[in-house]
Specification:
This protein is an alpha+beta fold and 155 residues long. It is 32% helix and 15% strand. It has one domain: Roll (Ubiquitin Conjugating Enzyme), CATH 3.10.110. A 4-stranded antiparallel sheet has the order 1-2-3-4. A hairpin with a 6-residue loop joins strand 1 and strand 2 (34-40). Helix 3 (123-131) crosses helix 4 (133-148). The mean pLDDT is 94. It is an enzyme of class 2 (transferase). GO terms for molecular function: ATP binding; ubiquitin conjugating enzyme activity.
């Protein structure tokens, strides 16, 4: 396996030494380009109290191209589809090598706090969101409790 670029090593060290509140990103021991990520839902959002698992992978041409990020936890959100793919400009057309893993994760956390049904990836969810926002938010809360709330069962 090729040595990791200095940039990835630096970013990884910063994620560990200076973590972002509500976000953890841990590199896999088998592949240092693969991160297990958790993002806590923003407190003022339907995803509050939820802890979402994601995977983040840095392709060989990172930072010239965006990391691949996807939700592993089921989520009801107009910009995240059933496969966990995320519709976010900085992961696509607005990617810039100046961005870092932490800025991407912060953008994803912000997206949880501000769903955008006008630029959907999950069209059915976006339609629900636009036709009955209160019901869509209730469904998002329900899914968060069902799939994203860490179990407090200590057995």
């Amino acid at each position: 396996m090729a040595a990791l670029p200095k940039r990835i090593i630096k970013e990884t060290q910063r994620l560990v030494s200076d973590p972002v509140p509500g976000i953890t990103a841990t590199p896999s021991e088998e592949n240092l380009r693969y991160f297990q990520v958790t993002i806590d839902g923003p407190s003022s959002s339907p995803y509050a109290k939820g802890r979402f698992d994601l995977e983040l992978f840095l392709p060989d041409d990172y930072p010239m191209c965006a990391p691949k990020v996807r939700f592993l936890t089921k989520i009801y959100h107009p910009n995240i589809d059933k496969l966990g793919r995320i519709c976010l400009d900085v992961l696509k057309d607005n990617w810039s090598p100046a961005l870092q893993i932490r800025t991407i994760l912060l953008s994803i956390q912000a997206l949880l706090g501000a769903p955008n049904p006008d630029d959907p990836l999950a069209n059915d969810v976006a339609v629900d969101w636009k036709s009955d926002e209160a019901k869509a938010i209730a469904t998002a809360k329900e899914w968060t409790e069902k799939y994203a709330v860490p179990s407090t069962d200590s057995s």
